[in-house]
Amino acid sequence: xxxxxxxxxxxxxxxxxxxxxxxxxxxxxxxxxxxxxxxxxxxxxxxxxxxxxxxxxxxxxxxxxxxxxxxxxxxxxxxxxxxxxxxxxxxxxxxxxxxxxxxxxxxxxxxxxxxxxxxxxxxxxxxxxxxxxxxxxxxxxxxxxxxxxxxxxxxxxxxxxxxxxxxxxxxxxxxxxxxxxxxxxxxxxxxxxxxxxxxxxxxxxxxxxxxxxxxxxxxxxxxxxxxxxxxxxxxxxxxxxxxxxxxxxxxxxxxxxxxxxxxxxxxxxxxxxxxxxxxxxxxxxxxxxxxxxxxxxxxxxxxxxxxxxxxxxxxxxxxxxxxxxxxxxxxxxxxxxxxxxxxxxxxxxxxxxxxxxxxxxxxxxxxxxxxxxxxxxxxxxxxxxxxxxxxxxxxxxxxxxxxxxxxxxxxxxxxxxxxxxxxxxxxxxxxxxxxxxxxxxxxxxxx
Length: 447
Ligand code: PHE
Hints:
With 447 residues, this protein is an all-alpha fold. The protein has helices spanning 10-21, 24-36, 40-68, 72-79, 87-118, 127-139, 141-160, 167-190, 195-203, 212-226, 232-237, 246-274, 285-295, 300-331, 335-357, 373-400, 403-411, 418-443.
């Protein structure tokens, strides 16, 4: 995607940006974090953050990207020459580096399941057996490193060749297919015996479970699922034609994301309660529950394999965006450099991610601040680096860029009126920075 070419169709950009947004965050991470944080209350706080912070911030990144039409670092250098604001882009690169290092571990799990499902290794197993098969796999060091490597390899190959744009065609089939499969799962899940407990877990807020950490995690989760605060959306929107509406693009991505989050929650929790599992099982939650729900559907294995393929695709399109933002800064349109940078950075990410992959096996008991490597990497990215990136992004847009220029850019291709623009501006200039800071300081126990 280097030659500053643009997306061919309106849908092209939305699909690519949605491809970055919709991934493990909505499908794997949301259910497990919500499960650990009491369910319903977490969902409500997450939705509020997504609308009050996520949506305006996504718009802000789109505006930066389309105004500057450059990569994560050059965009800031172009808009604020001679200043250090480009550190926001550099922070995004570091964040995406760490992010892909543990994201690929989960990507690898999907590959493992896919291989097992296709080769019949999962047929005729009951829930308990699934769990032990799975635990065996993720604790095996060689096995988990191999699949993690394969996941990164796919990512490197696509980014090295600059193929992300071509992926938009596949996305236009995969995203609707994902939705349909999820709807099937939801129908099966909510009709299981005892499903009602899961539904009330998801929709009946238990405010007594809410702590300052819950609020931070809900905020981090809303940034994570929308890929914001790390300049990914700046990079993607730099390829965006001027006639496309930024507010509409942002709205549709947020809408799709919320839909997938709700479907994932509705598919997982009724089943968790019906099968007598615990909602706070952590990162393994989805992987323990899914096969059992599928096994209760006619042609279950077939649907399970289809689901895993689409799930892998969704995770990969997010992974592409993480590597892309780093590579595009280095390659600057040079094809040979792009390829070299993709390989070197991709392999470095794999090496950096080794301790995360081993966190479910040999390094299970090795903890820092009470967290395994995997948990620490995830926590640092989602709850520290992404909020800091988003905070700085909001300050940059609302204090460094001219308000009139912002309005001009947002007006291109959209019918946004002054009043809505003002609301957005207030959200970005005041609400977002203050809220992000308050949530972060609250966790530190500052007040
Ligand atoms: N939004 C992606 C997901 O939900 C994760 C992501 C975060 C991707 C930041 C790129 C940048 O899986």
